[in-house]
Design goal:
The complex is a heterodimer of chains A (136) and B (320). Chain A is built from four helices and four strands, in the order βαβαβαβα. Chain A has one domain: 3-Layer(aba) Sandwich (Rossmann fold). Chain A has a four-stranded parallel sheet with strand order 2-1-3-4, with helices on both faces. In chain B, the strands form two sheets. Chain B has a five-stranded mixed sheet with strand order 2-1-3-4-8, with helices on both faces. Chain B has a three-stranded antiparallel sheet with strand order 5-6-7. Chain B has two domains: 166 residues, no CATH class; 136 residues, no CATH class. In chain B, α3 links the parallel β3 and β4. The chains are: A alpha/beta (136), B alpha/beta (320). The interface between A and B is medium-sized, with 30 and 37 residues.
Chain lengths: 136, 320
């Protein structure tokens, strides 16, 4: 059982997860969704905080490039994601645990599939114990 | 940085100090062979100015402070200092018209921690000069520069200031060299984690790296306690929901969080002065993290810190 924290943007990805729910698609029960107004407001510190609190994987989900409700928010999210991924890789943390996902409001299927796939990948990686403060 | 350059700097300062309200330069400390930043306001003080390989500190932060009260300030700036000042100018923190930059072409500075190990009696040191490839102490004792150079200066990309009104010394060629980072990246993932876990474990979170950094000018920082008022009437639930991302403990996860967030805020801005590393009482190689991001910014985004007019984090990048 892994723990996944998803920061889903209010306008696309959260709607996608909603669609996956109302369409009764089966996907990993390990996913915890936090709704944010835009993927561009996801502070890198939140991601690290999630890891600190024992998350095995973190997903930043937003609208497709060009579709952002606030015009450019997801470009900033992508930029931060790249910097963050490179840094995590550099200090020897498994950078695969951080994922960026574009999902539009109509892509409930894609959201469900990606989550299942991500959960499987994390299952293979095992428990995240480098930054986690949670003792089990 | 020898006597000749120092004399030339003094001449320039004597002329400039009359035109400005204050001048920031280096001055020797009385008790040890260190140099500190000093603010000069009159011509007769100019003789106390010094310029040597021990003139290490970055004046950008002091400059920003001074400009709050003074109209026009002159500053003696090495390559990295000018880079920091330029960054502050494009971020709108410093007004270019109110600054007079006396650029100094810099061959690299001395690491004081390495330097004191080479010297027997520090109170004897009168003057330190760089002549060719040797540090000459008191005009006679010679130390090879490569043994005491500040490690960060080996990879300096801008030894000549990027902006200046007046330049002292011959312009030097910088180089873009990430060989140390590449070498580190070739290491095993677990080895890398072992290395950084050991380094971050030593961090005592004094926040000196943040305080000394010329680009860390936020009035409210993620590490500061939030100033939300708590009164006897504040319900427990409200207190519990006050933002507290970064704990006060010095556990490894908190330290990683602090350092990564600090470095992320400097992506595409870092001037590379190494002030953070110098300020660190535990000797953590903080510049390695900054240099990693410098590499990413250049290689993945094609952003040149010394040329672009729009700050990196506010530039709109469209990537696929």
């Amino acid at each position: 059982m892994v723990k996944i924290v998803v920061f889903a943007c209010n306008w696309c990805s959260y709607a996608a997860s909603d669609l996956a729910g109302v369409s009764r698609m089966q996907y990993s029960p390990d996913v915890r969704i936090i709704r944010v107004m835009c993927s561009g407001m996801v502070n890198p510190a939140w991601v690290l905080y999630a890891f600190k609190k024992g998350a095995d994987g973190v997903v930043i989900a937003g609208c497709h490039p060009g579709d952002c409700h606030y015009m450019v928010g997801n470009y900033y999210a992508q930029k931060r994601y790249i910097l963050m991924r490179e840094l995590l890789k550099f200090i020897g943390f498994e950078e695969e645990r951080l994922k960026l996902l574009w999902a539009s409001a109509a892509e409930g299927k894609l959201f469900a599939d990606e989550m299942t796939k991500f959960a499987e990948e994390l299952e293979k990686l095992g428990k995240q114990n480098k930054l986690s403060e949670v003792k089990e | 940085m020898n006597r000749e350059m120092e004399e030339k700097l003094k001449d320039v300062c004597k002329r400039v100090v009359k035109e400005v309200d204050a001048l920031i330069a280096y001055k020797r400390k009385k008790t040890e062979p260190r140099e500190v930043l000093t603010v000069i306001r009159s011509e007769d003080e100019v003789d106390s100015i010094s310029l040597s390989p021990l003139s290490v500190n970055n004046p950008a932060k002091l400059l920003m402070e001074l400009l709050k009260t003074e109209k026009k300030v002159a500053v003696v700036a090495k390559g990295c200092d000018a880079k920091a000042i330029r960054q502050l100018i494009i971020e709108g923190k410093i007004d270019r018209d109110r600054v007079y930059i006396i650029g100094v072409s810099c061959p690299g500075v001395v690491d004081y921690r390495k330097f004191i190990k080479k010297i027997d009696d520090l109170s004897d040191v009168e003057r330190v000069e760089l002549i060719d490839d040797k540090i000459v102490v008191n005009g006679k004792d010679e130390i090879p520069f490569s043994e005491v150079i500040f490690e960060n200066c080996l990879y300096c990309s801008n030894p000549t200031p990027v902006i200046y009104d007046e330049l002292i010394g011959e312009p030097r060629e910088g180089r873009v060299d990430f060989s140390d980072i590449d070498e580190f990246e070739r290491m095993d993932r677990e080895k890398r984690w072992e290395y950084w876990a050991k380094e971050f474990e030593r961090c005592i979170r004094c926040h000196a790296c943040r305080n000394s950094c010329p680009l860390c000018y936020c009035t409210e920082c993620i590490v500061d306690p939030t100033n939300l008022a708590i009164s006897p009437m504040t319900p427990a639930e409200e207190k519990a929901t006050y933002p507290k991302i970064l704990g006060k403990t010095i556990s490894i996860s908190d330290n990683v969080l602090y350092h990564l967030v600090r470095v992320l805020h400097h992506a595409g801005r870092c001037a590379g002065c190494g002030e953070c590393e110098r300020a660190c009482p535990m000797g953590i190689p903080l510049r390695k993290l900054e240099r990693k991001l410098e590499k990413v910014v250049i290689e993945e985004f094609g952003y040149d810190v010394t040329k672009e007019e729009i700050p990196f984090l506010s530039r709109l990048e469209v990537m696929r």
